[in-house]
Specification:
mainly alpha, about 55 residues
């Protein structure tokens, strides 16, 4: 990880987010559920669903 922050931080790089989703799949899934519930993406340019899909090809 290139940053010292929350594992799934909106400021993290794409590589860090993919790694975090692999290391903490339950947390990533919870973030994805919240995205669906509130109708907003994790980041403007990247949803948690996209992160999870890319982390688990």
């Amino acid at each position: 990880m290139t940053r010292l922050s929350c594992s799934l931080c909106i400021f993290g790089s794409r590589a860090d987010l993919l790694r975090a989703a692999r290391l903490r799949p339950d947390l990533a899934a919870e973030y994805a559920r919240v995205e669906d519930e509130i109708g907003h993406r994790f980041r403007n340019d990247l949803s948690m669903a996209e992160i999870i899909a890319a982390a688990n090809p």
